[in-house]
Amino acid sequence: MTRSGLSQSLIAVLFVGAVFAAGCKQQSSDAVVVIPKGTTHEFWKSVHAGAEKAGQELGIKVIWKGPLREDDREEQIKVVENFVTMKVKGIALAPLDSTALVPVVSDAARAGVPVVIFDSDLKTDQKLSYVATDNYKGGTLAGQHVGELLGGKGDIAVLRYAEGSESTQQREQGFLDAVAKFPGIRVVSSNQYGGATMESAFKASENLLAAYKSGGGLALQAIFTPNESTTFGMLRALEDSGLGGKVHLVGFDSSPKLIEWMRKGFLDATVVQDPMQMGYLSVKALYAHLHQQPVEKRIDTGATLITKANMDEPRSKELLSPDIKKWLKE
Fold first, then answer.
1. 230 and 81, same domain (yes or no)
2. CA 219 to CA 221: how far, in whole Å?
3. Which of 43, 130, 30, 10 is nearest to 88 (CA)?
4. What pLDDT digit, counting tens, does each position of 142-184 carry?
5. Which domain range does residue 193 map to?
């Protein structure tokens, strides 16, 4: 065998080993694939754990593969295309964009590969099911809580996440509609975007805060951030500016650091989803379809407002700190 042939063979072996590691007995066509928006945030690790839990319970191989960053649409499209070509049994996809991923999902449908959409919706009727939080409701929970915190009056800001992200757009709209019911509340900023990374959210937060700093304080009474990265970035910016705990902040999602900030009083509340359940039910929906069982078109995985007052209740602790190590072998 030539050196070139040997290299190609090694590459092929490494690729197969990476995709079907951990003693997979099935062929590629027997696996289901779960494709998140990104792979770094705590939220996605919990989705991964839920998917693995379902896979182990049902006896099917689950492949976890997604882009590193939550703004890499092209990479996510390539991942979907590759697995459609491999003719896996099914795909669970959290689309980075509500329209950009439509063509590849259409390709999957034509190839006979069923697709469950989870976390964030896709503008297509070619999905098997949509498994997600009621994001609009989650936003209204946050907005209602801000209205109550402020006694119905004050100036507030929203740091949005990213254009094209259907899930966070629904949260933002739900929040704005809820606070609109309080005549004394003014939304003075709602056109800034934090972006897909903690660092971009931190910089956007610094810029937003700079516009409202006044006499060592802040001419804002509350801020809403619609996901983990924007909440984290805003908390960092508030802490660095000496403003932590001096303005009400209501966020979305959870991580160990966000829990720590809540205990310190810097984060008033966060709306948490159930990402483990999201991954679990997405895989179960694919499995049911593959076994000719009915699948609901919309599966709601719930949204809960967690505050410092209720964060130590059993259900709150379960949602804030899901047991992912059991399923991810971390």
1. no
2. 7
3. 30
4. 999 999 999 999 999 999 999 989 999 999 999 999 999 999 9
5. 135-272
